[in-house]
Design brief:
The chain contains 24 helices and 2 strands. The protein starts with a helix and ends in a 5-residue tail after the last helix. The protein is globular. It is 69% helix and 1% strand. The protein has a two-stranded antiparallel ribbon with strand order 1-2. Helix 5 runs parallel beside helix 12 and helix 12 packs antiparallel against helix 13. By secondary structure, the protein is mainly alpha-helical.
């Protein structure tokens, strides 16, 4: 069978998911199981894989999904615990009293506070917290939703303490080790840990331009479409504060990516940057000469508002700001202590694992869960328990927080089990075993890679990030996008003799920018700001910054591949 036909069969599950979720507006809980069944059919009927082997790959995917779900649960538990303790309202109270200028509020909350939340928790947390906070300050619901969706991009590659890189690239372990063992040309890493670190480093370089461009662009965009003047000028007038915020975020962001690892850039960049720009705003540093507002809400376009009022809400402090922020400070401190090898805890925690060997009797199908090293347990669940003591929470509120977190897990569990099982079938379809792969076909991602490589040639760096964006658009997760397409990107790079590190980094960046147009995120943010049914109106606006982001990243990735770094690969 020709490689083109194989590529189409491999592409079919992705097309099915896209049509069901975008065209027919199915939720991921229904669409992803159908996409998984489509992959099962292609694996058995076209690739000729034994049904039992496909079942084993599915179970392998389930185990991987459990590891991701532990992180999701821990992130949600922290959020619910802080909501029940009054810590989150205290944080919101502090945010509310910094400045009345809506442009500066958008940067502090939508750009920097959301970046910190993404680095600490990820998985939709920025939209769940930042958008309602902007709404309560007096932002039109539609503007609040768009701001939070677009700004939740550059931090996402390192979201939930680096999960998209650390777990999202896990299926590249075999090709990475094979490349190291063969001493292939252009390999400047010794193991998977080195590779992940390099991907994080190059990803920051690709994000860098948009970290500076995006806040200026978005403030102009907001004043053009939501301001009483309908002009870009008031938004662009705040450019000095935008650059100040970008520098405050970027310095720790780059430092931790290049010196520590992929777990910390967004978490520390957001936390440090937040403190700096809040102090700067209070001191009037780089602030616009006159404050700006959206104008009289009675004159707003009806499309801007939903079922939730856009009027201001008064928050009340329940404790000191330090006490409210302490759980997040503990998360950052514990992560640093447990992720630096020289301190000894990293190796000890990572060695503790539940292993599943030779699943259903197939020696090549294995999986494990490093239950103590996953950030869902340490520090998320650990800090959630400590917060009960720190904030003096009564038992009833603790019970409510845990109950809410458990209930919230239902839909992510269904969608992730199906999505990651699909990914497992994708990568296992090219096994070099005549009994399991009688036609000796390449894996599904590699079949797509070979077909794409024949079409794009060496122009691929310009398009690589858009594949990552497509993955997030479909699956709702940068992590799952990387699980789905990382081997595909590696395959294209290998086929075209492009620097694999750069192309995989572009995938990780693309998965992050895809959060702007991700159906799941749009639906979620619409729900929290009362805009259900307005998903299309949001998507047609967020697609423009998404395309701008992809264009800039494509140019940077192309330059890195062909001009600036020829001797490093």
């Amino acid at each position: 069978m020709s490689i083109e036909v194989l590529a189409l069969v491999a592409l079919l599950p992705i097309l099915v998911a896209t049509v069901l979720m975008v065209g027919m507006r199915w939720p991921a809980t229904k669409a992803m199981p159908v996409a998984w069944l489509t992959a099962v059919a292609g694996a058995i009927l076209v690739w000729g894989l034994p049904a039992k082997y496909v079942a084993a790959l599915t179970l392998q995917g389930f185990v991987t999904a459990i590891g991701i779900l532990i992180i999701v649960f821990g992130a949600i538990l922290i959020l619910r615990t802080l909501q029940q303790s009054g810590g989150m309202e205290t944080i919101q109270y502090g945010m509310q009293n910094i400045t009345a200028d809506r442009r500066i509020q958008a940067i502090i909350i939508g750009y920097m506070f959301a970046a910190f939340l993404e680095g600490a928790a990820g998985f939709g947390t920025p939209a769940a917290l930042a958008a309602p906070l902007l709404l309560s300050l007096g932002f039109p619901p539609l503007a609040a939703a768009i701001i939070c969706l677009v700004f939740n991009s550059f931090p996402v590659t390192f979201g939930a303490v680096g999960t998209p890189v650390v777990l999202g690239l896990k299926f590249l372990k075999d090709p990475v080790e094979a490349a190291v063992a063969s001493n292939a040309a252009g390999i400047n890493f010794a193991n998977m840990g080195d590779f992940n670190a390099i991907i994080g480093q190059w990803a920051t370089v690709m994000h860098l331009a948009m970290i500076f461009i995006l806040p200026v662009f978005m403030l102009g965009f907001i004043t053009r479409f939501f301001g009483p003047e309908r002009s870009w000028k008031p938004g662009l007038a705040a450019w000095k504060f935008c650059i100040f915020a970008a520098v405050a975020f970027t310095v720790p962001y780059l430092f931790f990516a290049w010196n520590v690892g992929p777990e910390f850039p967004s978490l520390i960049g957001g936390l440090v940057g937040l403190g700096i720009i809040i102090a700067g705003a209070k001191a009037g540093f780089c602030m616009p000469s006159t404050p700006w507002d959206f104008g009289d809400s009675s004159k707003w376009d009806p499309e801007w508002t939903g079922s939730v009022s856009g009027g201001s809400t008064e928050f009340k402090p329940h404790m000191s700001q330090f006490k409210a922020w302490l759980p997040y400070i503990l998360i950052g401190a514990i992560l640093v202590v447990t992720r630096i090898p020289e301190l000894g805890l990293k190796g000890m925690l990572a060695s503790q694992a539940i292993k599943f060997s030779s699943i259903l009797g197939f020696d090549s199908v294995n999986a494990s869960i490093k239950y103590l090293y996953l950030p869902g347990t340490i520090p998320f669940v650990l800090v959630a328990l400590l917060t009960v003591l720190i904030h003096g929470m009564p038992g009833e509120k603790v019970k409510t927080a845990w109950s809410q977190a458990i209930v919230t897990m239902k839909n992510p569990t269904i969608a992730l089990f199906a999505a990651v099982a699909l990914v497992s079938i994708f990568r296992g379809s090219g096994i070099a075993d005549a009994a399991l792969n009688p036609n000796s076909y390449p894996s599904m991602p590699l079949a797509m890679a070979e077909a794409v490589a024949s079409i794009t040639g060496n122009a691929w760096p310009m398009f690589a990030s858009f594949v990552g964006g497509l993955g997030s658009f479909i699956t709702g997760s940068n992590t799952v996008s990387d699980l789905l397409f990382a081997e595909f990107q590696w395959g294209v790079a290998s086929t075209l003799d492009l620097p694999r590190q750069i192309i995989v980094a572009a995938q990780a960046v693309g998965g992050a920018m895809g959060n702007m147009i991700c159906i799941h995120n749009i639906v979620a943010v619409c729900a929290v700001v009362g805009l259900s049914g307005m998903e299309g109106a949001i998507l047609k606006r967020t697609v423009w910054p998404f395309l701008l982001y992809g264009l800039v990243v494509g140019v940077v990735a192309s330059l890195m591949s062909f001009v600036f770094l020829p001797g490093l690969f």
